Automatic annotation (TrEMBL):
Gene3D superfamilies: Leucine-rich Repeat Variant. It comes from Cephus cinctus (Wheat stem sawfly). This is Uncharacterized protein LOC107270818 isoform X3. One of its GO terms (biological process) is mitotic spindle assembly. InterPro entries: ARM-like, ARM-type_fold, TOG. SMART domains: TOG (SM01349). The gene is LOC107270818.
Length: 284
């Protein structure tokens, strides 16, 4: 029993490593201009075990749910890996149990063992792609924990949670992503705020500057992003500040910038950042 568990963990580490290599390779082909980590946004299916069609998904799901209910990290990890296999072929089967899956995933994310957090991030990443579950509060809670873990002391964990967040942005509608991400803009850890600022650039790159200003259905998203940018431009953290400047500079090129920015950000804050905005306007 102990040995098989150990072997499973070894296998998992190997998969993660292989995945990492593949990612480094893929990044060279990527044409994506947003700020990403040192990997591409392409999601491969080679990480959490091979892509195998499960013969009896109903039975496997039943057993997995029973394991999740035990609320132990070992059994939950086993179950969640089976659930990933199910999600690849029968995502709709998981719908009635998503709230239990959510709770289990959130609690694995909070585990103190780095490899468990990493597995949970990989699972979250795949679920963003396969299930695209944006149901609240599950989604926001999960995103909040992923963001929190971008300040984890283990570099591999930081890598994996950042990757999960990038995947989320590609697969989940921007309005949901923006809502969940901007909620963490006031986080006390500078690494988390810096991640938020990085992700905002990616979101705007994906939307495109013209759509950012012109799409009526993005009105609320635009407002949320402007408000956070206005705060970030005077943030105490260099990277956060710098990302905010980069993004504002990009958006400033649009003729509607001033109108919308002044309309969305409150006057007090506008006064406070007046100097920074003017400097940016005339900087090259
Ligand atoms: C990286 O790409 C090269 C060619 O593009 C390929 O030969 C090599 O096997 C790839 N490495 C990995 C780890 O996928
Ligand atoms: C990459 O970007 C260039 C210029 O924007 C474009 O012409 C090219 O088709 C893109 N390539 C891919 C693979 O998307
Ligand atoms: C899981 O879903 C099934 C229906 O497919 C339902 O009968 C069962 O109560 C659900 N269990 C939990 C814990 O959500
Ligand atoms: C999802 O999980 C989180 C963390 O355990 C919890 O706070 C939240 O209420 C859960 N959502 C549902 C609908 O169970
Ligand atoms: C980070 O976590 C991995 C497990 O995924 C572990 O092997 C490694 O030793 C950890 N690194 C540090 C610096 O703790």
């Amino acid at each position: 029993m102990k040995l098989s568990k150990f072997l499973n963990l070894m296998l998992l580490e190997m998969c993660i490593f292989h995945h990492y290599l593949t990612c480094i390779n893929k990044s060279k082909e990527s044409n994506f201009t947003g700020i990403m980590g040192d990997y591409s946004i392409t999601v491969e299916h080679d990480l959490l075990g091979p892509l195998e069609r499960i013969n009896n998904p109903h039975e496997v799901l039943r057993q997995s749910i029973a394991k999740l209910k035990q609320n132990q990290w070992e059994s939950s990890t086993e179950a969640i890996l089976d659930i990933i296999q199910i999600s690849r072929y029968y995502p709709e089967m998981l719908d009635p149990n998503m709230s239990l899956i959510n709770r289990s995933l959130c609690s694995l994310m909070r585990n103190t063992r780095p490899h468990i957090v990493r597995t949970a991030s990989k699972v979250a990443m795949e679920l963003f792609e396969t299930i695209k579950c944006t149901q609240r509060p599950e989604f926001d809670e999960l995103v909040a924990i992923l963001l929190q873990k971008t300040a984890h002391m283990n570099k591999s964990v930081r890598h994996d949670v950042n990757k999960a967040l990038d995947t989320m942005i590609v697969h989940i509608p921007v309005s949901h992503c923006t809502r969940a991400i901007t909620s963490a803009a006031g986080h006390k850890n500078p690494l988390v705020r810096s991640t938020v600022s990085r992700l905002l650039i990616t979101i705007v790159e994906l939307i495109g500057v013209d759509s950012f200003f012109l799409s009526l259905h993005l009105k609320d998203t635009r407002r949320k992003i402007f408000v956070v940018l206005a705060k970030f431009i005077i943030d105490g953290n260099y990277e956060t500040r710098n990302n905010a400047k980069t993004l504002i500079k990009l958006l400033m090129a649009h003729e509607d910038f001033e109108t919308f920015f002044n309309q969305d950000v409150d006057c007090k804050l506008l006064d406070k950042i007046d100097k920074q905005i003017i400097n940016l306007k005339y900087s090259t």
